[in-house]
Amino acid sequence: MTDLNWCLTRDIIFDAFWVFALLRDKARRTNGQECLMVDHRTENSIRFDVAIDQRNMEMAGTGQPMWGHVCEGCVKFKRNPTTQDIEYVNAIVIDGVSVRCRCCSVSSDEDGMPCIEPLMHPKHKFCGKHGANLWRCFVRDCPKDRGENSRACSLPAHQAMENAETLIQSQGTRELHRRAARLGRPIDQEQAHSYDQKRRKKLVLSKFTHCEMLALAPCGIIKGRTTLFNAEGIKATFLKSLFPEGLEESLPSAVFYDKACHTLKHLLSTGDTYLTARTAFLYDLFHGAFCHKEDDKFCNEHCNPAQFPDLLDELGRIIFNTSACEQANVWFGGFGTMVREMSLACFGFFLDEMILIHNELVEMRLKQQGLNPRILPEEYWNGSWRHSSHAAPA
How many CB atoms lie within 10 A of CB 354? Predict the structure, then answer.
């Protein structure tokens, strides 16, 4: 009798996840007419990489299957008091959530932007383009090579910084020294580096992406996702990829964001006319009441939802759920520890697949609530139906 001495491992479970998700995606995109093709002559650990990268590119921007979703929870109809025409308003809520993965430690390249090249392995510190930095001193902007069995060069000051950094690698050691510092006990000069965050910023340490930016319809459907590599990531670029030119009908009437005033100022300063001409940038209910200054004239004039009657009901309340992202972040943030050590490609693939499953469950709930969820075809979003004999999609 054969001894089947095996057990389910992390690798087996994730292999099954990748294969099933890729098969399901191929069947959905080709209506079951094409097969998933992968290279059988490579190692199992990398044989699905090409298919994963292709799926990631297809899911970017407008690629989510629920991108064209509308329902009575995210689109509201009102009668124009002047023309008596039926008009509609819709909205999108965007926010960032701290779900991150490892990325190249080069914080800025020749053009001043963070390096977005994927790592060859999640444990690496630099991408293939910046691999030569591995042999340099880990103090930022130091041109010297690091010493043997050391991350720093021969300069005493840099050696001291390495000793201090080694000390704080242990979370328990760091906590004990923090408690000792609070009691007023002296800490030697090398250990003091662990409490000097400004000095730590001078070190080239392992780096993670900044956050994930989500765009949700107020009903809870996630329409898009992108990865921001630094805190200064431009949200306008994300919005233009989510609602591109040529699909102008997809532009929402309003975008709710906790820092809407900063995004609007950026758009106006760059002379943008695509987003600002048709979309209002407003802060959500919570952040508007507690996080924006009352004497900020620009913010109150341009980003206060109360200034837009079309977004209010008869009692003056906002007609959309502007906290949709905060509610989704509770669920989405739970994947943070699961994806932290994944490669950038697997990181994006996993999150997109979780969003897809989440949207399917939300759509079922919307149907049960009688909100009539549906997906409008592309000819509606590009406006071509206006020039045909067919009526607009219902």
Answer: 19
